[in-house]
Amino acid sequence: MIDNTKRKFVQVGCTEHVRVSASEVEDSVSQQLPAPVTKIVLGHELKRQRCDAGLTQQDASEILGCTQQKIDYLESGGGVKPLELNALLERYGASETERSYALDLHSESNKRSRRGAFRLRFQRHMRLLVDMEPTCQRYRCYRTMVVPGILQTEDYMRTLFRAWRPSPAQEQIDRDTGDRLARQSVLDNEDQQFWFILDEAALRRVAGNSAVAEAQIAKLIEVLDRPNVELQVVPFSTGYYMGQSHDYTIFGYDTQPPVDIVYLEQHEDGEYIDDVKRTARYLILWEQQKAAAMGPEETRRFLLRLATSS
């Protein structure tokens, strides 16, 4: 379970997973997954082992002497105590490799951010997002009205920050701009895949003067040349399409079991979704929006035309 979020726990049926050992991926300051992500991976691993043992959540609840809802909570990434973990692993008949993997995940999930960590510069609801940006294997982002932060130029950022009311102090704008620019370094990691879908409205809404808009379009064209970045635009000519008014980002992890986490951006905070059924619906929505958008090369030609006409 992810803190500071609106969540709904839904029990889902057992699915087949592949047994593998633990793996490490980079984050912004170390070689660890964000602790909340590790808790989700551990929860999914416990569910896999339970299903492989032919047990239900009710059976698992009898092992711990708790309710079925608590087992659902544990398997959803809510965290598990060491004694509970050992009891479940014992009853599930975990192999030494599986036991070691689960215990390693548990240890990693309890680590705290060190003082001065980059994530601590951001509001609480943004910290997990900042942790996931450099650690996920797949980053999928859909935006309707504003260019995503990790693709924005500095002038575009400053224009957006100045639009807030009450207007932030110049020092705050400078800090927020510097922090957002620092986040863009994740695009340099070619081991990650970044895919963006923008509604044409995000490109037509001019941020500041025409020079700011032209520079932003030029940056998007430059981003398309990166080997690990794809960008598509949904043109106005498409008409209405699924999910056109909902901004979201999907962070995909090739952990075992695999994990996808959806971030829904809101006015003053954000919501993280890791429930398997709900994330599956967003993955379907993503494919529908990809189909509605122009392909990457057609998008490049569209941006070039837009740059010359602005």
TrEMBL record:
<dbReference type="Pfam" id="PF13560">
    <property type="entry name" value="HTH_31"/>
</dbReference>
<protein>
    <submittedName>
        <fullName>Transcriptional regulator with XRE-family HTH domain</fullName>
    </submittedName>
</protein>
<dbReference type="InterPro" id="IPR043917">
    <property type="entry name" value="DUF5753"/>
</dbReference>
<dbReference type="Pfam" id="PF19054">
    <property type="entry name" value="DUF5753"/>
</dbReference>
<dbReference type="GO" id="GO:0003677">
    <property type="term" value="F:DNA binding"/>
</dbReference>
<dbReference type="InterPro" id="IPR001387">
    <property type="entry name" value="Cro/C1-type_HTH"/>
</dbReference>
<dbReference type="InterPro" id="IPR010982">
    <property type="entry name" value="Lambda_DNA-bd_dom_sf"/>
</dbReference>
<feature type="domain" description="HTH cro/C1-type">
    <location>
        <begin position="46"/>
        <end position="99"/>
    </location>
</feature>
